Amino acid sequence: MDYLKLKSGTDIRGVAVEGVAGEPVTLTDEVVETIAAAFLKWTENHLGKKPQGMRIAIGHDSRISADKISAALQRVFLKYGVHVLDCGLASTPSMFWATLDLPCDCSVQITASHHPYHRNGLKFFTPQGGLDAPDIGEILQLAQKGEHPRQETPGIREDCGYMKDYAKRLCETIKKGVGAPDYEHPLKGFHIVVDAGNGAGGFYATEVLAPLGANISGSQFLEPDGMFPNHIPNPENETAMAFICKAVKDSHADLGVIFDTDVDRGAAVDNRGEEINRNRLVALASSIALEGNEGGTIVTDSITSDGLKEYIENTLGGKHHRFKRGYKNVINEALRLNAEGINCPLAIETSGHAAMRENHFLDDGAYLVTKILIKMASLRKEGKELEDLLAPLREPVEASEVRLPITDPDFRRRGEALIQALEEYAKEQSWAIAPDNREGIRVSFPKGEGEGWFLLRLSVHDPILPINLESDVAGGVRAIGQKLLKFLETHKEDIDISPMEKFA
Length: 504
Fold this sequence. Notes:
The chain is an alpha/beta fold. It has helices spanning 29-46, 66-79, 92-101, 133-144, 162-178, 203-209, 238-251, 279-289, 306-315, 327-339, 365-381, 386-390, 411-428, 476-488, 498-503; strands at residues 7-8, 11-15, 55-60, 83-89, 106-110, 119-126, 129-130, 156-159, 192-195, 255-259, 266-269, 275-276, 297-300, 319-322, 346-348, 354-356, 362-363, 398-405, 432-433, 441-445, 452-456, 464-471. α1 (29-46) crosses α2 (66-79), α5 (162-178) crosses α6 (203-209) and α5 packs parallel to α11 (365-381).
């Protein structure tokens, strides 16, 4: 078993359920137990604590393999004297808060985000935040060596319903933020529908919105079901978004809310049934984050639109700092900027991962939605709606993504070489290369030549070259794609350019 193959950025992920052709189970009981023991060695090395008497919380989303994996973790933790706090069904962000509120030394969330039902994984937290990619690599290396604590001592297991406390925390945030005359029911008169996609997010409707007075009729897929029978719980998925848009229209609701499986991402739908997602979500979150942080810097990933940059800088008076794809990348960049004395209140990826400084830079979909609700209530007092706030945002006429597979086994080297060659080609063609891009190469084109831009980059984890294209005119992305295709046709060794040929 090559444990390092289970590394997925800042997570451990693998196949946990049999039955999918070509995908053998990699998260067996033995593998999970070995990782659990290695994690305890990591805590000895980095937290300076022996397992005996250590408090570790365990939570999970709605996946069908969750109980099995939780049982494997608990067997090992209890073997070495850990006080296990079993939180059961929980959101990923709540498991960070558990380290502060319970409190406990660290926590483990069992989740694979929006991935298919047969996959699962592990995320780790300490009171300082989520473990980063190097920590995950170290844990897996320790597992590869079979490292484990030396002393065995019986531990203690305790059921812990922490999610109710986490929901109350969100309720208090809304009460304070809205400051309604009926303080206990600040959402009275609002109709809000929630789509949890049968993940862990159903609590937001029943334990946050309803107690605060909101009408939640029309909410759907609140019951946890790890087979995800209705749609993928993923705000980036078109089918999922179509479901929540329809629910808002059918219910004549004021707002729709959708979460991914483990609730670290969220998105919204306005009262017209229009998505507040991707660039619109980044714009709304930026507007909220810059209140009281005038002139502050917003860190986003690299694929945000030119219109969003204009909105952040011209409409909101902030600064836009494009960085790399990957939610942990944008969070770490925001932390770096703040450490340098730059006022940066928000790190957000277009996928919906939004991390606010006021919330420990935790990417928390429920907290983002909570802040949106507070803003909606504030605007309502002024006779305005969320769409009024977003009206100045210039959005592209067309937007597309094309993904080119890299067949070279050393895909990272090959991808980086292609990006370097494209940069040289762009200079020869006198193309306008974005000066503020920090990932891949981003090129803009004027009127008559596509009136838009493309960004070609190397995927964070996979042998893929994603190409994002946007244009302010009909037919613009195809025109830009044709320009890029001329370059690709002379550099197609070990790269499958057929998706771009088909697109252009």
